[in-house]
Amino acid sequence: MKFLVTFGLLLTLIEGVGAAIQKDLYLSSQTFMRLPVAKARWKESPFNAMQFKSGNTKVRASMAVNLILKRKLIGKTPEQVRELLGNFSGFFWSDAIPAYLVEEGWNEKKDTWQLVFLLDDGGRVNEVKIHKNCCN
Amino acid sequence: MSLIGALLINAGLSSAILASPSPNCMKWFAEAKIPLGPECVLKCGLSSTGMDSFMCPQTCPELCSQTKNTDTILGRLLYYPGLTAEERKLVRKHPSEALTVFLQKQKAESATLKRFGRDAQNDESDAFRHFLWAGLLAKEIGPELAKQFLDAHEASGRAEDPNRAMDLANNRAGLLSAESLRKSGKLSEDELVKMALEGIANKSLIILESREGNKQ
């Protein structure tokens, strides 16, 4: 009996995992950087839209963690993000998804990372993540 | 007990993984043209398979239920996280070709990462990606439908947006090159890649912001 209950719970868990795989098929195939790792790598400067817009990738990287934690751009449209932060420099899935390179690794054969602004069904930003644009 | 448990867990895991139809299975299902309805699962299960689709019948229940709404399956699963309104119309009208569009998009992006070590915007990698995607689409679904999908993809951008103009110009270059290669009997991915790189080198492709360096 105990075995059956345990097995039932396990199957339920597995089914849940299966559904999640289906729902997030594309996202789950991507690599994202966790915030503690990003903080250790780039530190955390206060997010400032104007400085971000005019800054290089190093400046942008330093604001990445704070931008995510403060959730300041949640609910914005891609066009509003473009107005605040400038033209998209990165690419994630489509030209229409806001993405900004924060670490350009291609010349040093390192990883390339970007901030991506994931959209909800209504086309508004509902999450910001640090995505591995490319490979080392 | 451990053996039985392991077998059952393995079966459970397999079913959970198989519950998510792969892009290959979606393409197989679309190409089989199985009508939706009460007999969908049965017909799907009895459809012939090949080496790359022999596992697909096990996902028939999901394929039959999800494709009741093509917009959902392609919009949420394949085209995450957003299609333009024009793309939605095309996906509904040409579901099988839409899967090809998706697969060629993935191919173009992978080739871009391989060549440039990045997928960016407004630079060489952007020009290469658009040229190659357009060329591959022309190869797979013909130039007219390819142009419709490519234009639909850019439909949401502002008319005066330089990035959009760049994408449209490089798409057009890809379509024209594919047709030129087709006429000479040389249309292949390798030739398209070669022409894209030549276009970047001789500046016939449009690049708004050059970024130095590439992976090779």
Question: Can you describe this structure?
Answer:
- The complex is a heterodimer of chains A (136) and B (216).
- Chain A has 136 residues and is of the alpha+beta class.
- Chain A is 46% helix and 18% strand.
- In chain A, strand 2 (99-103) and strand 3 (112-119) form a beta hairpin.
- Chain B is built from 11 helices and no strands.
- Chain B has helices at residues 2-18, 23-32, 40-46, 60-66, 70-78, 85-93, 95-116, 124-141, 143-153, 162-183, 189-201.
- In chain B, helix 6 crosses helix 7 (95-116), helix 7 (95-116) packs antiparallel against helix 8 and helix 10 packs across helix 11.
- Chain B starts with a helix and ends in a 15-residue tail after the last helix.
- Mean pLDDT of chain B is 80; it is low at 1-19 and 67-73.
- Chain A binds chain B through residues 3, 7, 10-11, 14-15, 17-19, 21-23, 25-27, 87-97, 99, 101, 104-107, 109, 112, 118-120, 123, 133-135, and chain B through 1, 5, 8-9, 12-13, 15-17, 19-21, 62, 76-78, 80-82, 84, 113, 116-122, 125-126, 129, 153-154, 156-157, 163-164, 167, 211-215.
**Percent of residues in beta strands of chain B:** under 5%
In total, how many beta strands of chain B?
A: 0
Distance linking N and C termini of chain B: 55 Å
Q: Average pLDDT value of chain B?
A: 80
Summed up, the helix count of chain A is 6
Q: Estimate the global geometry of chain B from the Cα principal axes.
A: elongated
The pair of chains with the biggest contact is:
A-B, 41 and 43 residues
Query: Total strand count of chain A, please?
Result: 4
End-to-end distance of chain A: 51 Å
Mean of all residue-level pLDDT scores of chain A:
84
